[in-house]
Amino acid sequence: MPAVNEVNELIGRYHKALDEFVRGNPEPVKNLFSRRDDVTFANPLVGLPASGWEQVAEALEHASSQFGEGSEIVGIESVGKYVTPELAYVTEIERARAKVNGREDIAPFALRVTMVFRPEGGTWKVVHRHADPITSPQPAEWVLQQ
Description:
Nuclear Transport Factor 2, Chain: A; 6-stranded mixed β-sheet; 3 helices
């Protein structure tokens, strides 16, 4: 199936772009996102989810700016993937070592990530990305707001 190969290629490009992203350069990641009004981005470094290209671009720039020198992606674990000719998704765990928010020390962190893709004008694009730091089971009480 050609769509599987095209989505795999996009995922590979996204993983390479993440290296730049955590070094403070959001442009390679931004280049992989849809520019349509329904594009969304949810990230623990930006607060509420961004919707529409202008908000998503700003959120990507803000999130990338939170990383300091020496930050790097150290591994990506595939959890699941599904591809059709019209839509695809991937779920992964991204592991990094990073200086975050002006800290001097490099610390490990992991994100649980889901991304949705679709073809636009003959090229697959990211139309949704959600990342959060929940990578292990949490007690039921954890979801209650204090």
